[in-house]
Write a structure and sequence with these properties.
Order of helices and strands: HHHHHHHHHH
Shape: flat
Strand content: under 5%
Largest sheet: none
Helix content: over 70%
Number of helices: 10
Structural class: mainly alpha
Number of domains: 2
């Protein structure tokens, strides 16, 4: 099935492939053949993401985590490696500066389009990693979720989100147990925020 579906993706029938991945994996889950369902979903998510189909890839990544929960799969290195692999395939696209010529309709349209795509990428990645964090907390990881998953989410939110929510980002950094990365991110934020916001961000970080 994996090779056959790969061919469908490479022929450019991305959405047809998505439906096939979903239906085949669902049949495997119904038959309690969880290992095969996970293989199909992992392969499909990676392929779709490699071809730039973020919505499709994220959809399958979320189903992958859902199948981990249904199969009561433990939080272990092998599964975390697969989550890391899918995470690394989510695109990172620099968000354009908000300062555009507002009299130029094309500039404004392009900015709105870029910001919309960035928000969609962040929402997709957030849904996937939040589900993975919840799974890791329930099946063998720390009660707040596996720290590296929090680190991944915090980093992606900080670098890719058009509207920075430092409270949310800080919450994940605290659970990531990586104070050096958190500190360097706060320093970077101080260089790009409005006057007065930097003190507030540091105060919140300390209080967490």
């Amino acid at each position: 099935h994996i090779d056959k579906l790969k061919k469908v993706v490479e022929e450019g029938n991305y959405y047809g492939a998505l439906q096939m991945y979903k239906s085949i994996s669902a049949r495997y889950v119904t038959a309690q053949r969880f290992s095969e369902a996970l293989d199909i979903l992992f392969s499909g998510s990676c392929l779709e993401l490699e071809h730039g189909l973020v919505n499709c890839g994220a959809d399958l990544a979320l189903l992958f985590v859902d199948t981990l929960v249904k199969s009561k799969s433990p939080c272990n290195d092998e599964t975390l490696d697969r989550i890391r692999c899918m995470f690394k395939l989510f695109p990172r696209v620099p968000v354009p500066p908000h300062l555009v010529d507002v009299s130029d309709d094309e500039d404004v349209h392009n900015l709105q389009e870029s910001l919309g795509e960035a928000r969609s990428r962040v929402e997709n990645l957030t849904s996937f990693l939040r589900a993975a964090i919840k799974w890791s907390a329930e099946f063998g990881g720390p009660s707040t979720g596996y720290p590296e998953l929090h680190a991944m989410l915090a980093d992606y939110l900080y670098t890719e989100c058009p509207e920075l929510d430092m409270v949310r980002i800080s919450r994940h950094f605290v659970r990531a147990e990586d104070p050096e990365k958190f500190a360097s991110t706060l320093i970077n934020f101080m260089g790009r925020c409005y006057p007065g916001e930097d003190d507030l961000a540091i105060a919140r970080a300390v209080l967490m």
